[in-house]
Write a structure and sequence with these properties.
The protein has twelve helices and no strands. The chain is mainly alpha-helical and 215 residues long. It has one domain.
Length: 215
Amino acid sequence: MNPNLIDLILHVDKSVAWIFHEWGWVAWALVFLIVFIETGVVVFPFLPGDSLLFACGAFAATQGQPLGVFLALIGAAALIGNTVNWFIGRTIGDLLLKPRPGKKPWIKAEHLEETHRFFDKWGGWAVTLSRFFPIIRTITPFVAGVGKMGFGPFSAYNALGGLTWTAVFVLAGFFFGGLPWVKDNFSLVVLLLVIIPLIPAFLGFLRTWRKPSKD
């Protein structure tokens, strides 16, 4: 198997096994890079996050790989990625949000609006909670930077969210990824990991869409 991006997302368990078998130590760097980009580069919210963490945990359990290394590596990537994202928002966020004549915006308007609503509801805790919501977790640190959220408070919420997110999904994969039903239906489990966190955002979009406009 030589995985492309679609394979990596839909068959992430096989992709992780193939990468570690073929690339050896480089696979550790690739896992770090994917998590870092998904959390740290605001224009790449579509990379696998939850499913990759779950697959890494399952791989550690079934192939005897060191669980602690996965937890430390992914946790570090998540924290550093969000910090870089905050820094981008704080330094050049306004420039990236400016309309570009004849070109698509760097960030989709609906994703940005949903993230602003998330911040309005949860305040600083949005940085922590956003970890469990695909797309929103990529844009939240950027919005925090644009809004000039202080580095100290951001780092505290970031650490709590990043380490909790890492532990929940990697350990879930470690303890449940090797179960026969999960192994036989891994693609379904991956789709559920992608779809379920998006449901609140989708419901919020529907409420906004159905709300009558004020003239």
